[in-house]
Amino acid sequence: MMFDKKTFTENLSTPVNVEDVIPGGHIVLSSGQRWQGFQCNLHHHQPYGFDETSFEIDILTLSLGNTIHTLKQIKDGKRHEDVHEKNDITLNPAYVPQSQYWDSECHIFNVFFEPWFIKRVIADSASHNPERIELLPIFKARDPFIEHIGQALLCELQTEGLCGRLYAESLATALAVHLLRQYSTSKRNIRQYEDGLPRYKLQQALEYINAHIEQDIQLADLAELLDMSRYYFVRLFKQSMGVTPYQYVLQQRVERAKVLLKQWERAISDIALECGFANQSHFTKHFRQFTGVTAKAYRQR
C-alpha cells in the first residue's frame, strides 16, 4: 500500500485526511484541535510500506503497545533493519528521501511538525542561521523525555484536547527543543537565558491571561504578544513566576472560581465553563489539586 504524498503534505494548520495517507486500523486525529504548527495521530495498522519519497514535514514516531515488529528503513541512502518494541522512536526529517516497510501489525503515535514550527524555535535559541540547522534521521532510539512528552500529547489527543491549546502547544514546543538539542546539526548551540522576563513584558503577559482567562488561550498568541518564540516565553515566564504559563492559567482560573462559588445561585457546571475549564469534571480535578477539596465542599465552608 502506498502513501498519498499530496494529501500528507498539505498545510497541517488545516484538517488533513490522514486516513488517505496511513491505511488501515483505528485512527485518532488531532486536526480538530486547531493546534498550530503540529499535529498528532494514533493508529493501529497492518503490515505495509512505501517506496522512496520525501515529505515536507518532520515526523516523529513512538511505538506503542506490546506488539513487536521489524522495521526496514532507507533514509537518505542509509539502510537499517531492526526489531521495534514499545517506546522505540524514529525521526524522519523533512525533505530526506526515505522508504519504510513493516512486517507485522503495530500501534504507533506520530507527531508531525511543520518546518516553520521548528525554525521558529531555532530563530532566537541558536547561534547559527536557522536555515542551516537540520534534524538528523533516527532509525531507532530510546529517549525517556520523548516518551514522557509523547504520552502527554497522546493523552491530549485521546481526550480531545481536554487541557487546552496552551498545554498542548507547550508540550510540542518542549519536544521540538529537545529534538534540536539531541538530534540536530546544532545540538549544543541552543542559547540559555536565566534572567526571566522584563517587568513590562511580564505585566503584558499577566494582563492578557487574566483578560482572556475564560478562553482557550494559545501559547502562540502569548509569544507573539511579547515578540519572542514559544520556547523562550515559557522558559522566561517560569523563571519570573516560578510556574509555567499553563500552571499559572490554572491557578488564576481556580482563584476566579473561588470567588464565583460564593454566589450560591450559580451552578458549579456554569462556573467551570466561565472560568475556562473544558467541563465540570476537568474543573473538579484541578480545583481539588490546588485547594485540597472539591468545589462543592469549598462552597459549603
Describe the structure.
This protein is α+β, with helices and mostly antiparallel strands. It contains 11 helices and 10 strands. Strands 1-2-9-4-7-10 form a 6-stranded antiparallel β-sheet. It has a 4-stranded antiparallel β-sheet with strand order 3-8-5-6, with no helix packed on it. A hairpin with an 8-residue loop joins strand 1 and strand 2. Helix 6 crosses helix 7. The longest helix is centred in the middle third of the chain and has 18 residues. The radius of gyration is 21 Å and the shape is globular. The termini are far apart.
List the defining traits of the structure above.
single chain; 301 residues; alpha+beta; six-stranded antiparallel beta sheet; four-stranded antiparallel beta sheet; 11 helices; 10 strands; 39% helix; globular
Structure at a glance:
With 301 residues, the chain is an alpha+beta fold. The protein has helices spanning 5-8, 115-123, 144-158, 165-182, 199-211, 219-225, 230-241, 245-260, 268-274, 280-291, 295-299, and strands spanning 27-29, 38-45, 49-53, 58-64, 69-75, 78-84, 89-92, 98-102, 106-113, 138-141. The chain contains eleven helices and ten strands.
Shape: globular
- Range of strand content: 15-25%
How are the strands of the largest sheet arranged?
1-2-9-4-7-10
Q: Which structural class matches the secondary elements?
A: alpha+beta
SS elements, strand count? 10
Topology:
Layout: H1 5-8, E1 27-29, E2 38-45, E3 49-53, E4 58-64, E5 69-75, E6 78-84, E7 89-92, E8 98-102, E9 106-113, H2 115-123, E10 138-141, H3 144-158, H4 165-182, H5 199-211, H6 219-225, H7 230-241, H8 245-260, H9 268-274, H10 280-291, H11 295-299
Antiparallel strand pairs: 1-2, 2-9, 3-8, 4-7, 4-9, 5-6, 5-8, 7-10
Helix pairs in contact: 2-4, 3-4, 6-7, 8-10, 9-10
